[in-house]
Amino acid sequence: MKKIFAVFALLLIVAMALPACAPAAADCKSADVLCVGLVTDVGKIDDKSFNQSAWEGVKQAEKDLGAKVQYIETTDAKDYAKNISTFADEGYDAIVTVGFALGEATVAAAKQYPNVKFVGVDQFQTETIANLTGLNFPEDQAGFLVGALAAQMSATKKIGAVCGTDAVPPVWRFGEGYKAGAAYIDPAVEVNVVYHSDVGFDKTFVDPEWGAATANSMMDKGVDTIFGCGGKTGNGAVTAAAQAGKFAIGVDSDQYLTLPEAAPRMLSSAMKLITPGVAGLLKSAKEGTFPGGNFTGLAGYAPYHDLDSQVPAEVKAKMEEIQTALQNGSLQTGVSPAKP
Amino acid sequence: MQGSETKGKTPSRASKLFRSAMDAALVPFLAIFTALVIGGVIIWLAGGNPIQAYVGLFQGAFGSPKAISETAVWATPYIFAGLAVALAFKGGLFNIGAEGQLALGAVAAAWVGYALPGMLGITIPAIIHIPLAIGMGILFGAIWAAIPGALKAYTGAHEVINTIMMNYIALNTVSYLLNGPMKDNSPTNVIARTPEIAVTARMPAIFSDLRVHWGFVLALIVAWLVWYLLWKTTLGFEIRTVGSNPDAAKYAGMNVKRLIILTMAFSGGLAGLAGAIEVVGLNYRHELGFSIGYGFDAIAIALLGRSHPLGVVLAAILFGGMRNGATRMQFLTQIPVDVISVIQALILLFVAADEIIRYIYRIKQKEERLVLTRGWGG
Q1: CA nearest to B333 within chain A
Q2: If A285 and its partner were Cys, which of A117, B48, B64, B264 is the partner (CB 3.0–4.6 Å)?
Q3: CATH number of the CATH domain containing A194
Q4: Does B330 touch chain A (CB under 8 A)?
Q5: Is residue A227 part of a domain?
Q6: B321-331 confidence digits (pLDDT tens)
Q7: In terms of domains, do A312 and A196 share one?
């Protein structure tokens, strides 16, 4: 017994002494060093979705701006404020927070740390705070792109979309953009966009069975390309389409990577280009042109992956042309921001 | 140890207490130590520097007033929930349902906080509103745990199965409520969460610039109350008797059925209190992303604390410190925070299977074995 206690006393002393030889913290408090931190929502940094895309944007800043970068994964929603202030207290110059859920904590932190620049991914700002920019995306353009792709790839000239409720503006923009994009290619293409507006908010995004059933009934009527926009409801539709051997189109991020059961038939996904959006805002933060308020990023479409060989070269060229035109403003989707 | 022995030939009462506390703490202490060593190897295998990681962990948990405050914030629900599981253990019952009881307590407290003043059309003074919200949390947790307690008492249905099943019902009900009837309907909100509770239902912070709130102090008081209940009252004696030998309790004339239900209700009330305190003291609302897994961590905390209130408090501070310090550990080393879960699981493994620890460190079995729950149908 005594020996064990002696060993422990020794270990305890060593443990107490350890903090003294802690590694020197990187000099983020110095004005010359650009330090960028990222706080995830309750999720992992390699989620193949928002967190990962935003982190890749931060890594871009590391490469282009010579920034020192670091991330913290949140494990409990009550830690949002603490995780953000961990970076702010260390003298970080810019902090990226990912996802709507961090919105309130980010606004509070921006007010508390006026010298730190904050980028809130998918956080719409209702008031303008000079050191906080909400990075939002033109969902109508993303929907437009995949609508145009679907119209070109459909053999039956009948395409469909299964979406969550149109009372949520981004969902409405995805769905209406899809219609507009298809009409832009060929007004004769038959477009079925179904919103799951018949149920409450608790159900509309988490109803894969309804999504699959709706997709199946569309396919019975000859639809051969289906765009799923609305969480698990959309995923259900897309998976049903893939299982039937039709074209499936995902949403938000490249769902070829996140929805393996539909991957072999995943034609593309309507994407929010988070990586360049984050990288661009961090660059403007360094150059002193940080916008504040809301910043609209770019929309895009995911690679064709397994179906690349099935997409004709002229379709690929047309898609790039449309994307460029949308991004430089020479082409408008004509979709209103929310359901009128 | 030396100091206490020099006091006199006959060891004083304090010295005896100290000795028995040291004996009781030995296995948990060695379990923590062993888990940290193995965790260090895992960190090293994952390409990290274990010393740097543990330094970060320690700094993040106790390195500054803010860090200590955050550790207390984490420890607060852990103490309540740990006491909940520990009290049930003392009564010979294994309450795996703390997770669900906690979530229901949180929702009940949030409802009193945001909806009740509007329903009554009055502003409830804080002196009534705060206890009312907390009390409702306790009540819901207690009722939810009393159900499996009654099933055990009257039908012999094992509480382990039933509390797990009650967890599913509670968690899915809470999910429904937060997505539906109780959802925060402000136009920009898409998260499953309740509206913010009224200002009158919010427990004040102890210091203006730190998040630690009076709930932590309450947790320490409640820990003392649980100790008092178990070891200084007749009811506590009865609970412990049922826990160690229900047949003896029955022959001694105790109402075993009533005691089982009561023990579960006390346990559930403490778990509900854990949820309520998070709403009233810290988050000011309930959200689906809050408090995930506290009820399960609580089992580990109760085991590590050997079901003694003081042990639970210390174990809760340890677990809270690890959860809190993990942020800084990740900040300094970019080691995934999951390492902390691995270390916690290892601690639990070594405490539950203490033969491993006794074998490694050659400790002779002195104290009586820890009886957690009786066998099936017991």
Answers
A1: A70
A2: A117
A3: 3.40.50.2300
A4: yes
A5: yes
A6: 999 999 999 88
A7: yes
| Domain-embedded: residue A311 | yes
CB distance from A311 to chain B under 8 Å?
no
> How many A-B residue pairs are in contact by the CB < 8 A criterion?
89
Note whether B289 contacts A2, CB cutoff 8 Å.
no
Residue A197 sits in the same domain as residue A121: no
Per-residue pLDDT tens for A91-100? 999 999 998 8
What is the domain range of residue A154?
A: 139-271+300-328
Q: CB contact, 8 Å: B353 with chain A?
A: no
**3-state SS of chain B?**
CHHHHCCCCCCCHHHHHHHHHHHHHHHHHHHHHHHHHHHHHHHHHCCCCHHHHHHHHHHHHHCCHHHHHHHHHHHHHHHHHHHHHHHHHHCCCCCCCHHHHHHHHHHHHHHHHHCHHHHHCCCCCHHHHHHHHHHHHHHHHHHHHHHHHHHHHHHCCCHHHHHHHHHHHHHHHHHHHHHCCCCCCCCCCCCCECCCCCHHHCCCECCCCCCCEHHHHHHHHHHHHHHHHHHHCHHHHHHHHHHHCHHHHHHCCCCHHHHHHHHHHHHHHHHHHHHHHHHHHHHCCCECCCCCCHHHHHHHHHHHCCCCHHHHHHHHHHHHHHHHHHHHHHHHHCCCCHHHHHHHHHHHHHHHCHHHHHHHHCCCCCCCCCCCCCCCCC
Last residue of a domain, one of A83, A112, A136: A136
Asked if A338 is an interface residue toward chain B (Cβ–Cβ < 8 A), one would say no
CB-CB neighbours of B92 under 10 Å: 25
- Residues in chain A closer than 8 A to B103 (CB atoms): none
Calpha distance A207→A200 (Å, rounded)? 11
Task: Say yes or no: A257 and A158 in one domain.
Answer: yes
Task: Tell me whether residue A149 is in a domain.
Answer: yes
A54 and A132 in a common domain? yes
Do A121 and A79 lie in one domain? The reply is yes
Q: Structural domain tally of chain A?
A: 2
A181 and A67 within one domain: no
Are A160 and A227 in contact by the 8 Å Cβ rule? The answer is yes
On whether both A154 and A266 belong to a single domain, the answer is yes
Kindly state whether B34 is in contact with chain A, defined as any CB-CB distance less than 8 angstroms.
Answer: no
Q: Taking the model in full, what pTM does it have? A: 0.81
Of A114, A136, A158, which marks where a domain is finished? A136
User: Of A144-148, A194-198, B117-121, B208-212, which has the strongest mean pLDDT?
Assistant: A144-148
Task: Verify whether the Cβ–Cβ distance B52 to A73 is below 8 Å.
Answer: no
The answer to whether B333 contacts chain A (CB < 8 Å) is no
A288 sits in the region (left: phi over 0; alpha: psi -120 to 50; else beta) called left
Quote the CA–CA distance of A85 and A93 in Å, as a whole number: 12
Tokens of B283: 């988050």
Residue ranges in chain A whose pLDDT is less than 70: 1-26, 201-202
Q: Are both A313 and A219 inside the same structural domain?
A: yes
Q: Is residue A7 part of a domain?
A: no
Is the confidence metric ipTM above 0.90 for this complex? no
